[in-house]
Batch of 3 targets.
Target 1
Amino acid sequence: MQTVQLFAVQAEVDFGTYASADAFEGAMRRHAEKIEGMREAGTSGSHEVPALAVWPENIGTFLALAGRADALASSKDSNEAMRRAATRMIPRLLATAVLRRPRSLESLFFTAVAPQVWRIWWTTFSRIAKDFDLWVVAGSALVPDNANGPDTPEFKASDAHVHNTSLTFAPDGHCVSVVRKVNLVPTQEDVLHLDAGEIGDLEVVETSFGKLGTAICYDGFDEAHTSEEPEFTPCGLVLDGLGADVIAQPSANSWPWDAPWYFNEEGEHQLRSEQWFKEGMFRHLERLTNVRYAVNPQLVGTVFEHHFEAPSLILERLPDGEVRVAARSENPYGEDLISVTATI
């Protein structure tokens, strides 16, 4: 049996978080410094026990703003910001359109800015993993596949198929896993013309504390949000079958946490906060046999019209199959950091 410290980073973001590469890395390193302080305060000593830190979904998505803050700050919403940014990168957009032939304007934009997004996102979390001796699940960003492979900050789009993508870094700073979100959230990700990942590409990583899998937000749910998603697949079942001991579930909830659930069917009156437990990973863990813990950090804050809120969770499946909340943020609206010392 192996002991591991699990950390869910509830990162609060705003426009300034993404103003520059330095601003982004500084914000992320402040979370890592808090993790380091908690490790040093632990009874087991600073680094005698391995640690896993999971950042939220879409933490890297808004890095398209970096270096363009002055020009975009007055934009009324993300669509206007995208248009303004596009006018300043017309040659790159034209070259991307000719070379990659994207199927939508959104795919064209995300593919054109991907080298910048990837470089800042990859470099930031590679450094954090190495500098703080952490296993890191670096949330996610909207990028195509990197033709250069995952373990490099240098990016070349292999195509214009944009995925909600998560990276995992080992404590030596190397990227050891790429995961693409399989189930796209209706009314949110489908309208961006993202491409869904393949079930067969899901994988687990051998770590110093056991096997780690990643299910990006909706992929960790037990059932679909609507009755019109026949291809919905609970990815935790796949990761469990691959022998995962821990599932990282980076999330970014953009619906009001304590308001009626957007997809309530006729006669339903559940809140989003109730639906999260009734249909999400809390319920899904009951069906698994290998997974012991799920680490579910949430993105919070506002960037343009995009507002995020929800409390981060660390869930434990007990030997008898019962699932309990091992740690929970008390503030679903602001920055937080929760941790559990687990035995795998």
Target 2
Amino acid sequence: MVADLKTDVLVVGAGPAGSMTAKWAAKGGARVVMIEKRQEIGSPVRCGEGMSKDWLPEVGITPGKWINVEVEGARIFSPSEKIFEINEKHAGNEVGYVVERDGFDKALAIDAANAGVDIHLKTAAVEVRKEHGRVVGVRAKEFGETFEIRAPVTIGADGFESQVGRWAGLPTNIALRDMDTCLQYRMTGVDSDLRYCDFYLGKCAPGGYVWVFPKAEGLANVGIGVQVSQIKTTAEARIYLDRWIEKHPGYAKGKKIDMVGGGVSISPPLKQTVSDGFMLVGDAARMIDPLTGGGIANGCIAGKICGTVAAEAAQTGDTSKAFLDKYEKGWRARLEEKLYRNWLAKEKLTTLSDATFDKIIDALAGVRLEKLNVHNILKAVHEKYPEVTKEFEAFL
């Protein structure tokens, strides 16, 4: 029989945001338990495996063996395959390294464990425990046995499909237009360029894009994200991806060696991520960038803030919503403006025709942007095709 546990901070979910939160809570002096429903952290992989690198020092991550390729930048292809090339420095949240995501997740869990975090694998939260309206822990199931973990601070880091947030009473509903369904093949024998992560826009991926992330010579992740509101069934993602591959000889000749799929939020962040004794972080708090679909950097940055506040709350004994609002204010000051602006941009971009995308990339192809953001992109497009930017005037 599994014995009940007591700890200062409980983290549900051992993805990047969970491990980062747990590590910084432990570094702050708290006793921390982190539970993961799967038997292996980081597996199965549900990610394109591309990420930037400029944020790593901020949260204390040292680059390691989990890096496959360090790319020079990204190429964005219009529907007619005009190319806008951007270097890594300006390429946003998902370019810099192509990684082995399971290795990356394990490395972050090792950092958490070395900081003192107690990790329980194959342990799923099945219920949030409350007393007088305050979250005081969870009921969990480990290898078929149910037990209770009590903690003055509980943190939901259980990903896009987060149940813990809903059980805790936070509003986590999401509209279909704010969801992408994604599918990715790892392919060998392809002609990808190790210097770039590639993104293909337009009706080849309704409301989303096709990506190619090189893993090694002749090996690449080839995937697609499509907006759920623009398709009839999630199975259509595979049809669109297969169709794209067939039209590109450098990939059509390749062989698929594995396949992963799942959902991604392209929504604004949640309006509330804390309550008495409880916080949400990472994908569970809708911190994924609505334009890129990337959430690793944001989840880790917010995780450091979350863990730091959790340790302070546990040590002072004040785990009220009022105290935990330090986390709410902290992550919003760091991330919210960009997330919200990118969501507004996403709302516009998902309505554009292929002809308009062609004009946008054509306008950008000859421009060197010092900083890649929505404002600078639209400003450059406005110079050549002012009619295209009329609907985006609020961003200029």
Target 3
Amino acid sequence: MAYGISDAPVDRLNRLVADCLTDRAFMVVEAFWRNGLWGQVVDHACSSGVGGAVARNMAARDVEIPRSAAIQLDSYRQHVAAATAYGLERAEPALECLQKAGVAFLVLKGAALNAALYDGPGLRPMTDVDLLIRPVDAGRADAALRTVGCRPGLDLLREDFYPRYYYEREYLLPCRPEVKIDLHVRPFRPLRYAVTLPDDAMWDEPMSVSYGRLTVQIPNVENMLIHLAVHAACHDAAELKWLYDLKLWLDRYGDRMDVESMADKCRKWKLGWPVRLALEQVDRLFGESSVYLRRTLLALSSCRAGWRDRLALAQSPRDATHPLAALAVNMLCTPGLRFRLGYLRAVLLPARSHLAQLYRGRHPGWPLVAHAVRIGRCLTRRFACPSAEPT
């Protein structure tokens, strides 16, 4: 089918780019030549974070592509390689400092995948370094990161909002361009998972990988698959980069995976529904189900989701643009009355340090004005452009 420059839907472009990442590349490029789709496909591949992987797959299969497309893909891959190397190098002293302070951590997302999955530079972009720590270590981790010059991001609603209710805190390294470390105390944002996931989730039998001069740990094969799948599902399972991560993880580590153990964890942690959604999307998009993907989906077929699981997952991609809806869904879907009431109090009555970031005036009664500004932002945020979440 021929699409014009402006009318190719995103899901169609996702499928075309996904074809470029499989053994169907020979067939789809013929259509690209005929229909003039190269510009759209290459632009979408780069904006989706898989431009480097497309370039390598085309070269590995000796697929002829236009010179302009080859130049764009190669330039993108070089840029990703340089940016990734810069971020990993700048973050290394901070990770070493955490290790010396005795703070256990797991490396997640892009930094972990560059170490354990992608075997070449420029294949997996990342704009920050994600670390998972135990909630009890949040204070020690903060102190350690500050000793190497890390600057925490904006204050959250209250001093105890992280780690009790919110899942991460950002720290900016003292370098230009800045590199961000996202310090997670649990792997996923929805408040429901703060109760359904135990604090030791993801921590059993981690894998060791090399990170520059350091040896760090990442989640084991089953836990990493769960993490990647739930993270993708919490963003509508629509980000091509994250779905390709899942495909490659199954291709690389499927033979080492204890599928039944993984499915048991999903049932215990109430994660079967998002993991299924993400893996089913991988199956639909890449269209070449491996035996490991089929086996995993079969093991998850008995996982059931209640309305709270479905509602929390449906709201998750919209939290930033619909904060009032996020508040309502968190109150409806999170177990534990006292926990929910504490969360509601923190949201409705933020600390002055947080209000001071919203309103700079310090006249008599300024906190009331700051509250009004905050409410106004919540009511109008749905009309603003949402910011991307880098990983």
